[in-house]
Amino acid sequence: MSWDDYDRRRTAIKAVLAYATEHPAAGLPFEDLPEVRATFADRRELVLALQYHWTQALWARIELRSLDAGRGRLVDAQDLARAAWTDCAVAHPVLRRLLDCYRDELGPSLLREQELLRFA
Hints:
With about 120 residues, the protein is mainly α. About 75% of the residues lie in helices and about 0% in strands. It is built from six helices and no strands.
């Protein structure tokens, strides 16, 4: 993926999240945003990109929590993951809502990953 592709995808994801924030009942705005249709081949590709965006945010939260909590003592990984997931869901409620609504489009392997990390 080139930097131009990366920038287009990032801009499209921001547009999706902004639209979903303003129109919470509208669902996934694939057809509503021309830049999204021009960037992603189909709805599934968009949902996978949203899942990837969530995964990056979640792993960043896990890393931050592990750095804060470690300080020379053992930390329960499940508690750490639960707290990070909750932090991430609070920080990204629209992203989390879209993923929860369109989880069937993720496919079986990503659904299993999502279920393993979902604690709320």
